[in-house]
Design the sequence.
C-alpha cells in the first residue's frame, strides 16, 4: 500500500529538533522525500540519518529562515532537483519569555524576524513554486496565537500574526485559482527542548505556578503533549485527506483552549 505522501516532496523548516524533527520522520514514513532544513546543520543531518536508516528519503539543508535570498534559491534548488515542491511546513521558531514590560526591543524584533517574517517569506516562495502544480502550506502557530499568556508577549504577538496571515494567504490562493491550501496548526504545551528551556528560564515561582496550572487546566490527562501529536496533525494537512480545508486552524492542545 502506498503511503499517504507517496511521490510528494516536502520541506520542513526547523526540522532538526522537536516538532520539526517529528514531522520530518512522520512524512518520510508516509513516502515523502523530505528536505530537512535547520540553522543547525548537524541537527538537520542527524534527522536525515535517522530517516535514511529507517528506509526513508531525506536530505539536509542549512537554512536561516530570515534570509530572503536564501529562501528563493532554496526553493528553486528543490524544484530543480526533485521536480517540484508539494508541501511546506513553516515550523522554525523561537520563544523568548518576557512580559510586555520586560521584553527588550531586540528580543521582540528577533522573535518577529524568525517566527513572523520567516513564515511570510516561506509562504511566498512556496506559493510561487506551487501555483501551477498545487500543494499544501502548513504554518505552525500556537494556541498562544489565539489566547494570551502574560509571560510571552513577543511570542503571542507573532503567533497571532501567523494565524491571520495564513487566512490571508489562503484567500489569495483561492482568488487567484491556485490549487494551494494554506492552513495553520496551533500546538498547545508540547514537551520539546524549546518549551523546557523557555520554562526553565523563568523565575522559580513562575515555573511552579505554570506547572500547577498545566496539571489543572489541560483536560486530557493534565500533561503536555508529544511532538508526534503535532506531526500527525501536519501529516493530515499535508495529505489529500484535508483537500477541503484552507485557511483553517488545527488546534492540538489536549483541550487547554476549551476553557
Sequence:
Amino acid at each position: 500500500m502506498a503511503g499517504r505522501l507517496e511521490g510528494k516532496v516536502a520541506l520542513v523548516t526547523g526540522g532538526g529538533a522537536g516538532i520539526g524533527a517529528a514531522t520530518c520522520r512522520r512524512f518520510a514514513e508516509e513516502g515523502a522525500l523530505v528536505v530537512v532544513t535547520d540553522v543547525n546543520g548537524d541537527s538537520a543531518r542527524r534527522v536525515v540519518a535517522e530517516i535514511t536508516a529507517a528506509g526513508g528519503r531525506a536530505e539536509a539543508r542549512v537554512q536561516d529562515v530570515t534570509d530572503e535570498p536564501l529562501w528563493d534559491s532554496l526553493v528553486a534548488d528543490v524544484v530543480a532537483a526533485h521536480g517540484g515542491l508539494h508541501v511546506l511546513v513553516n515550523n522554525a521558531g523561537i520563544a523568548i519569555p518576557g512580559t510586555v514590560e520586560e521584553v527588550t526591543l531586540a528580543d521582540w524584533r528577533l522573535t518577529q524576524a524568525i517566527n513572523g517574517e520567516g513564515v511570510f517569506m516561506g509562504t511566498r516562495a512556496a506559493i510561487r513554486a506551487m501555483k501551477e502544480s498545487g500543494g499544501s502550506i502548513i504554518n505552525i502557530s500556537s494556541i498562544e496565537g489565539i489566547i494570551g499568556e502574560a509571560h510571552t508577549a513577543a511570542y503571542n504577538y507573532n503567533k497571532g500574526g501567523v494565524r491571520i496571515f495564513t487566512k490571508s494567504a489562503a484567500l489569495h490562493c483561492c482568488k487567484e485559482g491556485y490549487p494551494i491550501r494554506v492552513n495553520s496548526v496551533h500546538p498547545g504545551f508540547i514537551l520539546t527542548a524549546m518549551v523546557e528551556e523557555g520554562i526553565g528560564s523563568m523565575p522559580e515561582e513562575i515555573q511552579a505556578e505554570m506547572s500547577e496550572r498545566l496539571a489543572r487546566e489541560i483536560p486530557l490527562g493534565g500533561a503536555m503533549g508529544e511532538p508526534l501529536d503535532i506531526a500527525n496533525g501536519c501529516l493530515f494537512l499535508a495529505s489529500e485527506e484535508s483537500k477541503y480545508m484552507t485557511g483553517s486552524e488545527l488546534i492540538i492542545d489536549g483541550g487547554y483552549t476549551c476553557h
